[in-house]
Amino acid sequence: MTRQSDEDEVWRQIVASFNDTAERDSADQPWPDSENIPVEPMRRVVKPPEEEELDTEDDEPRDEGDDEEEGEGHFTPPPPPPLPKLDIATKLAWVALFGGPAYLLVAAMASWHMEGWALFTAVAAFIGGFVALVVRMGDGPPSNDSGWDDGAVL
C-alpha cells in the first residue's frame, strides 16, 4: 500500500467512529462520576403562550404576595438621587463649551461667511468654558479631616 492509501484508510476509520462513545473506566477519569453528562440530554417542555394565559385566568383573586414569589431573585435598584443644582457660572461654562463648536459647525455646514471676530469668539468660548469647568471641578483634598488615610470606611 502507498502512504496516501494508508492515510485515507485512517481517515475513514476516524469518520466511521465519530459518533461512537468512548468506553472508559470511572477509575481513569480525573473527575468524580457525579459530573458526568447523561447520555440522553434532559429536555425542557415550554408551554405555548396561549396555554400560559389560560392557566393564569383563575376565578380566585391574586394576592400581592404572588408577585413577590415570581419576582424572587430579581433586583430592582432604588431610584437614583436627583442631580445637583448648577449655579449660573457652571451653566454658562457648559453653554460656552458646547456652543462655540456648535456655532462653528452650523456656520460651516450652512456656508455662512464668518468674520474673524466671530471665529475668535467661538474658539475662545470653547476654551474658556473648558478652563472654567476644570477650575471649578474642585479636585483638591477633602474638606473634612479624616486623618492620613483616605481608605474605605466601614
C-alpha termini separation = 78 Å
Shape annotation: elongated
Count of alpha and pi helical runs: 5
| Share of residues in strands | under 5%
- Mean pLDDT, all residues: 78
Low-pLDDT regions: none
List the secondary-structure elements in sequence, H or E: HHHHH
| E-strand count | 0
What level of helicity do the residues show? 40-55%
Give the class from helix and strand content and strand pairing. Answer: mainly alpha
Q: Rg, please?
A: 36 Å
Largest sheet, strands/sense/barrel: none
Transmembrane segments: 92-110, 116-135
Keywords: Membrane, Transmembrane, Transmembrane helix
Region (Disordered): 17-86
Biased composition (Acidic residues): 50-71
In short:
With 154 residues, this protein is mainly α. It is 47% helix and 0% strand.
Annotation keywords:
single chain, 154 residues, mainly alpha, 0% strand, elongated
Describe the 3D structure.
The chain has 154 residues and is mostly helical. The chain has a domain at 88-136. Helices cover 47% and strands 0% of the residues. The protein contains five helices and no strands. The chain has helices spanning 3-16, 49-56, 64-70, 88-109, 116-136. The longest helix is centred in the middle third of the chain and has 22 residues, at 88-109. The protein starts with a helix and ends in an 18-residue tail after the last helix.
